[in-house]
Design goal:
The protein contains 11 helices and 5 strands; from the N terminus they run βαβαβααββααααααα. A 5-stranded antiparallel beta sheet has the order 1-3-5-4-2, with helices on both faces. α9 packs antiparallel against α10.
């Protein structure tokens, strides 16, 4: 069975908080084992524990163009580096080979994108398959922030995957089929596939009492043989608790994000009304355009996508904001 090198790349736009918390393990994902967290490594020492700050610091340090950076610019590329689960697990168990694999990955990315641009290069060992998270700020050698120049389009990405596979060949990892019709998956989907390689509960044969075996001996043997099941149950409890905590945290983040979007549109309504009134005054028209008219339109559309139970809190007037 062939074993493949894996390189998944995605653009990072907007808020990097969630990505940073995952990579830096500020929140332990449900598919990670907390007891293995100490095996995780930073192959490039982060400047801080805040990914957004580190990305912005690198841009401030490396960007030399006079033109202002666009708000929707790709400030970073997120890349997951790994391989077929079975082969990666074999590599991970061989200390010498694993050390060489980590070194080869760091050298490949440092030479390709510049070590200064690697704001994260984190090895995760607390999940099923060993893998590296790389976050690359696409500052070109001439000081331009350009993901297109550094990573290119689909054709260049295929070339990058081919070159990476060549670098991983000594570790028994080959290039996947080029120009395949297989659908490209995003990092979340990739995670789901990789980390579902093993079942949570191991297969264990229920012990039966042997001929002439004492009750005490049978109980001791039964406890020993069923130990993997008990351990899996404890792990399931931990995962359930973590999922509950993550769910509550995500609910709060969603409400907060919706409020931020609403505030953004409210500010826009105020500025829009101000601009219209200035033009009306310049033309001598004695009419006042009220921001609340724009706000009313925003509210009518906003309430279609925000649940009723959240409307009261999310649409509550904030200090210094507009009243709907």
């Amino acid at each position: 069975m062939a074993n493949y090198a894996v390189l998944h790349a995605e653009k990072c736009k907007g808020n990097l908080t969630g990505i940073g918390q995952h990579i830096d393990r500020e929140h332990t994902p449900h598919n990670a084992d907390p007891e293995r967290a100490h095996l995780n490594q930073e192959l490039v020492q982060p400047r801080s524990r805040n990914l957004t700050d580190d990305v912005n610091h690198r841009i401030k340090e490396g960007y030399t163009k006079k033109k202002a950076i666009r708000k929707d610019a790709v400030k970073a590329m997120r890349v997951v580096l790994s391989g077929s689960p079975e082969q990666m697990q074999r590599i991970g168990k061989d200390e010498k080979q694993f050390k060489a694999w980590k070194k080869a990955n760091l050298e490949f990315f440092s030479e390709r994108f510049g070590k200064d641009n690697l704001v994260r290069f984190s090895l995760h060992m607390d999940e099923t398959t060993p893998h590296i998270h790389a976050v690359v700020v696409p500052i070109s050698p001439d000081g331009e922030l350009s993901a297109k120049k550094m990573f290119g389009g689909p054709k260049e990405l295929q070339q990058l995957q081919s070159e990476y596979a060549s670098a991983m060949k000594p570790f028994g990892l080959d290039r996947g089929k080029e120009n395949s019709t297989a659908k490209h998956t995003d990092i979340k989907e990739y995670y789901a596939r990789v980390n579902n390689q093993e079942h949570l509960f191991p297969e264990v044969e229920i012990p039966s009492k042997k001929f002439l075996e004492s009750e005490e001996a049978f109980q001791k043997r039964g406890q020993k043989e069923l130990a993997p099941i008990f351990e899996a149950l404890e792990k399931a409890k931990r995962i359930n608790g973590q999922l509950r905590g993550d769910n509550e945290r995500l609910k709060k983040e969603v409400v907060k994000a919706k409020q931020e979007i609403l505030n953004h549109y409210q500010r826009g309504a105020k500025e829009f009304a101000k601009g219209v009134n200035m033009r009306l005054e310049a033309q001598g028209v004695n009419i006042r355009f009220e921001a609340k008219e724009v706000d009313r339109g925003i509210q009518m559309n906003w309430t279609k996508i925000i649940p009723k139970e959240e409307q009261k809190e999310a649409l509550k007037p904030k200090k210094g904001g507009l009243r709907l």
